[in-house]
Amino acid sequence: MRASRLVTLLLLLQNRGRMTAQQLAEELEVSVRTVYRDVEALGAAGIPLYGHAGHAGGYRLIDGYRTRLTGLAADEAQAAFLAALPGADAELGLGEALATAQLKLRAALPAELREHAGRIQERFLLDAPGWYGDADRTPHLAAVAAAVWARRAVVLRYRRWRAPEEIERRVEPYGLVLKAGRWYLVAGGPSGTRTYRVDQIGELRSLEEEFAVPDGFGLAAHWNSYLADFRVRLHTGEALVRLTPEGARRLGVTPKGHGWTQTRVPIESIDHAHGEFLRLGTDVEVIEPAELRDRIAETVRTLATRYEG
Fold it and tell me: How many CA atoms lie within 13 A of 2 on its CB side?
């Protein structure tokens, strides 16, 4: 633990220049007395740093003492700092490790690339979850991530929509995917490779059994294939609708002129389409299928009756 703190202290001085003992203590979350001891240890180890007392005092490294990460272009440095996912690292238990890694990277960069990296963090932020709804509770995420990393099988109790609604299954965790603020586990099991929502895992028990990922398996390729198959299964039908320009905009349809636009749109099911088209209000008219049109007409009549008087 102390060795890691000494490295962090050294990198803080290398990255920021002069810092007081109080500033270092606040960054390292230790006492000022501990900073004094750490500075003495670095000096004894031959690190060329010195301190000055007074208002403009503090510790600093002798000019020119720096390790550099060579061969890193500006766009590569920017990409490295864009790669961090706010919140995801903390959920995986890697928040402190990521902060330390970025500090090391920043300290190793030449001055002009450090400036680029600083601009990236000042001007770009990824906030993956949507606006509505609370974030999923994923109490088993860290354990799942550990099993993925160690290539060890787990037994999980999983909640799903179809019967039986709760199952227990031994799976081999291949990888984790963060999609729109939600974590998914891709794992091998008795029925092949399946995808599980981590927030639907009720219980998880780690096993000592190690496994090998099948030859040719790639997490990114598998996920892209899964998404393509999901979209095919999702839109099993279509509806013929008329849309106002505003309705067309909201559905992502190119309007035809300034009046109504008639078009066919894919739908998942009658129930799902019923709710989605009601959201558009008077900006849509469903022509077919007849079952969907009748369902919406009945809902509108019920609402009209409810709000009369």
Answer: 7
Distance from C-alpha of 153 to C-alpha of 185, rounded to nearest angstrom: 13
Residue 164 preceded by cis peptide, ω within 30: yes
Which of the four pLDDT bands, split at 50, 70 and 90, describes residue 185?
very high
d(CA 75, CA 13): 25
**Region for 6 from its dihedrals, namely left if φ exceeds 0, alpha if ψ lies in -120 to 50, beta otherwise:** alpha
Mean per-residue pLDDT over the chain, rounded: 80
Cα angle for residues 178, 182, 188 (degrees, 5° grid)? 65
Report residue 72's pLDDT band, with 50, 70 and 90 as the boundaries: very low
Based on the number of CB atoms within 10 Å of its own CB, is 38 exposed (0-12), middle (13-18) or buried (19 or more)? Answer: buried
Report residue 12 as tokens. 């803080």
Residue 80 has pLDDT above 60, yes or no: no
Can you tell me which residue has the tokens 């979350």? 29
User: 277 pLDDT exceeds 80?
Assistant: yes
**Side-chain half-sphere exposure of 13, counting CA atoms within 13 A:** 28
The answer to whether 168 and 185 have CB atoms below 8 angstroms apart is no
Q: Are 188 and 211 a contacting pair, CB within 8 Å?
A: yes
Long-range CB contacts for residues 4-12, cutoff 8 Å, separation at least 24 = 4/100, 5/30, 5/38, 6/38, 6/41, 6/42, 7/104, 8/100, 8/103, 9/35, 9/38, 9/39, 9/42, 10/42, 10/47, 10/61, 11/103, 11/104, 11/107, 12/103, 12/107
Summarize the confidence of residues 231-235 as an average pLDDT.
Answer: 68
Name the range with the highest mean pLDDT among 24-38, 40-54, 86-100, 230-244: 24-38
